Recover the amino acids of this structure.
């Protein structure tokens, strides 16, 4: 692994700076205020803090009225703007695939001299932990069981039959497959390109440089970053709220029902205390930084996921799981285009799509600044094609395997077993579904403990990764921010999740995600065009005579290796020991 460089993308010396960076005398964080151990943007940080504080105060003061308002707003957005969410995410997939498989796919993030900052395994571990962790744990059993009883109108199968199980897995694959990762990939690509290839601040405003130029440092840029902060914070609060609900239920179910030791109460007070405790752990992790904390915990997460997945594959219905995976993929791939545009208006009034697909798309979009910026921060040195294939395909396929193991085991219990998992889900709800399923197989207490531990570690990695991202946004795009500032945002995220959970429950969390996702979806649609402009400009420079002359000068030096691809476009320049080792 290459040594981490905290100034990556911030006007470093080299070929990329000379030919590709815009002519501007501005630098990331050049107007920041340094005080009390903080390094903050003079507009984005205080305005974001005030608005977040007002939102929290209103939620607390209104009480039940706030919960009712959240429910109304969630339904209103879903019913009136669901079509826009569906259309937008399909556009993102097409655009991302175009960037990967067109001539732009050979462009390297960071420029031709860039080196990978993290190994492929560490890279995959971090992006997957940030992108899907808590959600997969929460919905991997409950969602297939829901569709098993309430078959989406698209499929028209009879409930609680084999056909319903097949439809349930395909619909779940659709929600956790290529579409969400296309959103993350598009955002990550745009942020990585404009930061590493153009030397602009690692914030969302930089993506609009082709349209705004130096105005990204003014109020247009401030507004873009403020919307990004809100989308990140509330999208993250949704995941943290879901995660802590499942941790609470896991401790209660495993400790009381399975082990017979002590039954932990399941209520907002206990969940608030759990958020405080786990946020404390996340604070320690984020204080340790990207290498010392986040990367290490992400790797541990991946190992725990493999352990739990392998355990269930062994003690569970192995052949049924594998068959579920293959059959689910077949139905998913066969219907992916139609599912992507299915609004449900003519089938079931759109209620299922609003409750699930529109919520998911709004959640993914709201979470995309967080996941996308985190992916961007760790993706230097990879080509556009490598980036897209890594972000889009591998995590999506792993998600289908995970969902087949856990959702498939629950469906096996419903179709060929005693049906206890489904009965417990109907009685106690989503948060207990996974633990009820694990109880039906050998060593259920052990697997339940492991599942609870995994939710906790995902909680921690989501919180500390999110803290790093919001730090970038509120520090003017700096890559290295003071430890006190990272700690501050870790605590703030936990507080917002706790207050939303206490003030309006899961509906408040879902509403926060889908509401902040709506204006951000518009920003992402504009971003498709600005990224295209940026890549087109990069390609033109790579094909220009000035670049060719510079490369020729480098080629004439000793111990310099110039790598080209296909049409002789330069893709890599190595110097010193790196050049020698490539021979």
């Amino acid at each position: 692994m290459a040594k981490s460089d905290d100034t990556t993308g911030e006007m470093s010396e080299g070929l990329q700076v000379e030919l590709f960076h815009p002519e501007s005398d501005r630098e990331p964080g050049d107007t920041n205020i340094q005080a009390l151990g903080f390094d903050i943007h003079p507009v984005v940080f205080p305005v974001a803090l005030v608005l977040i504080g007002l939102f929290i105060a209103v939620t607390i003061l209104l009480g039940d009225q706030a919960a009712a308002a959240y429910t109304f707003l969630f339904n209103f957005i879903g019913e009136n703007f669901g079509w826009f969410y569906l259309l937008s995410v399909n556009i993102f997939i097409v655009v991302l695939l175009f960037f990967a498989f067109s001539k732009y796919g050979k462009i390297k993030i960071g420029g031709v001299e860039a080196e990978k900052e993290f190994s492929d395994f560490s890279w995959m571990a971090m992006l997957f932990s940030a992108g899907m962790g808590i959600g997969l744990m929460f919905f991997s059993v409950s969602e297939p069981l829901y569709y098993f009883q309430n078959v989406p109108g698209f499929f028209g199968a009879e409930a609680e039959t084999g056909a319903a199980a097949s439809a349930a897995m395909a619909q779940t694959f659709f929600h956790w497959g290529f579409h969400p990762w296309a959103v993350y990939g598009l955002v990550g690509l745009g942020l990585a390109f404009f930061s590493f290839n153009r030397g602009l601040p690692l914030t969302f405003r930089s993506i609009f440089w082709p349209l705004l130029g130096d105005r990204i440092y003014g109020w247009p840029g401030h507004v873009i970053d403020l919307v990004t902060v809100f989308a990140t914070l509330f999208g993250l609060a949704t995941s943290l709220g879901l995660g802590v609900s499942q941790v609470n239920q896991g401790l209660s179910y495993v400790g009381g029902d399975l082990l017979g030791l002590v039954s932990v109460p399941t209520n907002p007070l206990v969940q608030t205390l759990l958020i405080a405790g786990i946020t404390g752990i996340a604070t320690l992790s984020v204080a340790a930084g990207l290498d010392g904390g986040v990367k290490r915990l992400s790797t541990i997460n991946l190992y725990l996921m493999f352990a739990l997945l392998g355990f269930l594959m062994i003690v569970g219905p192995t052949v049924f799981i594998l068959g579920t995976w293959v059959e689910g993929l077949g139905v998913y791939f066969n219907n992916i285009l139609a599912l992507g545009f299915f609004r449900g208006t003519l089938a079931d009034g759109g209620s299922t799509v609003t409750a699930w697909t529109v919520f998911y798309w709004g959640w993914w979009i709201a979470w995309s600044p967080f996941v996308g910026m985190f992916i961007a921060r760790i993706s230097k040195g990879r080509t556009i094609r490598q980036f897209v294939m890594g972000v889009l395909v591998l995590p999506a396929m792993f998600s289908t395997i995970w969902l087949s193991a856990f959702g498939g085991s629950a469906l096996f219990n419903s179709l060929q077993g005693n049906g206890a998992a489904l009965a417990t889900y109907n009685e106690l709800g989503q948060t207990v579904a996974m633990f009820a399923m694990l109880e039906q197989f050998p060593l259920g207490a052990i697997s339940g403990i492991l599942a609870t531990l995994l939710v906790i570690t995902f909680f921690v990695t989501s919180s500390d990764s999110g803290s790093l991202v919001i730090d970038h946004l509120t520090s003017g795009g700096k890559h290295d921010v003071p430890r006190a500032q990272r700690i501050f945002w870790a605590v703030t995220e936990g507080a917002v999740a706790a207050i939303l959970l206490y003030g309006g429950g899961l509906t408040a969390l879902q509403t926060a995600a889908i509401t902040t996702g709506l204006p951000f979806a518009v920003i992402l649609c504009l971003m498709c065009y600005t990224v295209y402009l940026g890549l087109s400009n990069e390609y033109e420079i790579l094909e220009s005579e000035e670049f060719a002359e510079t490369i020729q000068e480098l080629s004439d030096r000793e111990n310099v290796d110039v790598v080209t691809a296909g049409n002789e476009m330069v893709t890599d320049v190595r110097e010193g020991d790196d050049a020698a080792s490539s021979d």
Notes: Residues 544-582 form one domain. The longest helix spans residues 483-542. The CA atoms of residues 108 and 383 lie 4 Å apart. The chain has two domains: 74-543, 544-582.
